[in-house]
Amino acid sequence: QLELTESGGGSVQAGGSLRLSCARNTGTANNQYVAWFRQAPGKEREGVASINTYYGTTDYSDSVKGRFVISQGAARNTIDLQMNSLQPEDTAMYYCALGYAMTRTLRPSNYPYWGQGTQVTVSS
């Protein structure tokens, strides 16, 4: 059974940085995508960043472009999300997800596999 495990959440002041990591118990495929989503209380789940695990192509939402970077992690079968210049509006539960063969890589419905989430809290 495919499993995803997030780590690295926490609390930080505005302007600070955090690094999230998503570990998966499956290898890489040329049509495989891993994405980070976030959901704040009372809001819809939002796609933040995605990466094709084979080709390394990435996509970002406009809200994080230039501040967040998604990349292959140092550990095998991990995907990291480096979050810089964090703002209070970035506060949310962050989830990683995995899916295959898609065009819209920031759409939650394209991902059948999800982690449990990790909380990120940014104070002003």
Q: Notable features of this structure?
A:
7-stranded mixed beta sheet, 11 strands, 0% helix, mainly beta, 49% strand, single chain, 124 residues
Low-confidence spans = none
Instruction: Estimate what percentage of residues fall within beta strands.
Output: over 45%
Number of helices: 0
Shape: globular
Fold topology:
Elements: E1 4-7, E2 10-13, E3 18-24, E4 32-39, E5 46-52, E6 58-60, E7 68-72, E8 78-83, E9 92-100, E10 113-114, E11 118-123
Parallel strand pairs: 2-11
Antiparallel strand pairs: 1-3, 3-8, 4-5, 4-9, 5-6, 7-8, 9-10, 9-11
Description of the molecule:
The protein is globular. With 124 residues, it is mainly β. The strands form 2 sheets. Strands 2, 4, 5, 6, 9, 10 and 11 form a 7-stranded mixed β-sheet that branches. Helices cover 0% and strands 49% of the residues.
Explain briefly what this protein structure is:
The protein has 124 residues and is an all-beta fold. It has no helices and eleven strands.
